[in-house]
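Morning run. Coffee first, then this:
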Amino acid sequence: MNHSSQERAPQAQQPGPYGQAPAPAETVIHVPNKRLRRYDKAAPGEPTTTVQQAGPGTQDQPLAYVHVPQDAPKGGRRTRPPFTVSGPNGEPLSSVRSVGDGVYEVYGGDGAPIGRITRRAGRILPWPRRVQWSVEPVQGGGALVGEVGTSKAWAVFVLISPLYFVLWAVMAAQGALWLLLGEKSEAKKEAAWEMEPPTWTRWRWDSEPDAAIEYQTGRKYRLASARLDHRLAYAQAVLHVWDRA
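And here it is:
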């Protein structure tokens, strides 16, 4: 793999090629998602995206590289294309394969299974249900479960949605007017305004009150458990942020 253009992370932060990632008890990572939705446009040999260390003084140092085959079919949210994750020096960390219906098997760099990640779709009827993610390590210990958005945030979102659609219609009309006048830049500004649904997600074990993985905004994840296999955390972060792409 060609990673010569990327900075290398300090050795203390690098996951081992086959074992659990020897990372600190708490780490903040950033997973840019723009290239995920255009994975078929990535240059040969270059990673599709990078798992970066976030936080003061880290300078977005790479922790892992994500590779999606350019010819992989686009399967949608329930069947993402397969991808592999390698360390800063190209060492294999994990591979992720969809088995359908929102279920993904995760394998270590040696090909041994290390866990399963499941996305349960949200719905409105017959009763509302949030999107739910679960991470099940193969060695046991229970599943990490996280639901996208809090109940209160979704209630507020539903209440103000009618107002948003009215404002969106006004902005769309203004954008169309600017476009007719030949002002494409102004039209783009009007079209860019949108209201995002709640995204705060906290993964936790039933046996522990604190979150092991936490996502708030900005494609950044806080990994806050010493027992967390960071290979699974990286795979979950990629799948989760892919939903935001």
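Confidence is low (pLDDT under 50) at residues 4-23. Good start to the day.
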